[in-house]
Amino acid sequence: MSTEQPQPVVQLGLVGQGIGASLTPAMQEREGRWNGLDLHYRLLDADELGVGPADLPQLLLWARRLGYAGLNVTHPFKQAVVPLLDEVSADAADLGAVNTVVLRDGRAVGHNTDWSGYARAFRAGLPDAVHDRAVLVGAGGAGSAVGYALLHAGSEHVAVVDADRGRAAACADRLAARFGADRVSATTDLPAALAGASGVVNATPLGMHGHPGASVPAELLHDGLWISDVVYFPLETELVSAARTRGCRVLPGGGMAVHQAVGAFELFTGLAADAHRVEQHFLELTGARRPATAAPAASAS
Ligand code: NAD
Predict the structure, then answer these.
(1) For all residues of the chain together, what is the average pLDDT?
(2) Locate the Shikimate dehydrogenase substrate binding N-terminal domain: which residues (predicted)?
(3) Across the strands, what pairs with 15?
(4) Active site residue 101
């Protein structure tokens, strides 16, 4: 008879649209195994299931009934899920967006590991760059999380730029309500904002496979500017590549992806994930050559 203890079973899922290529199941399941868990992570693709935001209460109900320990939530459900939860962490409430729902003891508690994941990635990749003026291009869900992380980490000022002025203003207002109106502003003048900045983040889809281009023209990059991208399909976006060529420090989008998963794993399981191990696995999955969180200069490429 085997003396091996059965591994605790943990069932998790991701609710979102167009999530077929997500690396999250592989990352979570591998880290679960390392931690002695029989962890199963399922994609609950809204398109395949034929569900929309109005079906979220049913999805949550069934996740509870089926014994799920938690759900990650992505586009277009991050805002819609908030009012359905028993409790929401203060930071997720500030952002009005939840990407991690922990189902425990009959309660559904929402968290946002997008911002904390970006903050962790930033600390790992650009540890000396936080107390500066930053420009945030793209004021959607990812951009709001990045702005929150930068201000939380001590950036003196964040200028928010978006092709849609209303979205830039709404994002700036939300961040100002939490961090103070003197520390964040919306602007349409990207060149002027960049001229006085020490760093810029792309939080638009530009640079993704199927979305060629860069939200920041290469000629606006200047000495001393750090460049960060949230796009990670591919890791080497046009912007990251132009920044390396210019000799700027870079933080590619893989770091945020890795650390938001690490944060979610810890909330779901109560166990500490090994961020370095998850990053190595992420790089294996993406086939990338550069570290996801490091910021090598042009000479390293
Ligand atoms: P979103 O659609 O909510 O927001 C994108 C914003 O960019 C919109 O407000 C849009 O108006 C703006 N925009 C588009 N083109 C622009 C341009 N040229 N100049 C200025 N603004 C422009 O999308 P989102 O959910 O915030 O995601 C944005 C990107 O971030 C996606 O590529 C997504 O895959 C990526 N993402 C990465 C991570 C990660 O872990 N690395 C996490 C979340 C999202």
Answers:
(1) 93
(2) 14-101
(3) 44, 73
(4) no
Domain chopping of the chain, boundaries: 10-111+256-286, 115-251
Predicted TM-score of the model (pTM)? 0.93
Name the amino acid, one letter, at 67: G
Query: Which is the CATH superfamily of the domain at 115-251?
Result: NAD(P)-binding Rossmann-like Domain (3.40.50.720)
Query: Is residue 69 over pLDDT 90?
Result: yes
∠ CA 274-228-282, nearest 5°, is: 30
Distance CA 174, CA 158 (A): 12
- Give the percent of the chain with pLDDT over 90: 90
Task: Say whether 117 sits in a helix, a strand or coil.
Answer: helix
Distance 271 CA to ligand 1 centre (A): 31
Question: Cis ω on the peptide bond leading into residue 234 (within 30° of 0)?
Answer: yes
Q: Which atom of ligand 1 is nearest to the CA of 204?
A: 7
35 contacts: CB under 8 Å, gap ≥ 6 = 269, 271, 273
Query: Which residues have C-beta atoms less than 6 Å from ligand 1?
Result: 75, 114, 137-143, 161-164, 167, 203-206, 208, 215, 230-232, 253, 256-257, 260
Domains 10-111+256-286 and 115-251 share a fold: yes
Cβ atoms of 102 and 70 closer than 8 Å? yes
Express each pLDDT in 126-173 by its tens digit: 988 767 899 999 999 999 999 999 999 999 999 999 999 999 999 999
Alpha carbon nearest to ligand 1 atom 44, residue: 142
Q: Which member of 30, 78, 120, 290 is catalytic? A: 78
What residue ranges in 20-174 does DSSP mark as E strands? 38-45, 70-73, 87-88, 100-104, 107-111, 133-137, 157-161
Cα–Cα distances (Å) from 287 to 194, 211, 292, in that order, read 33, 20, 11
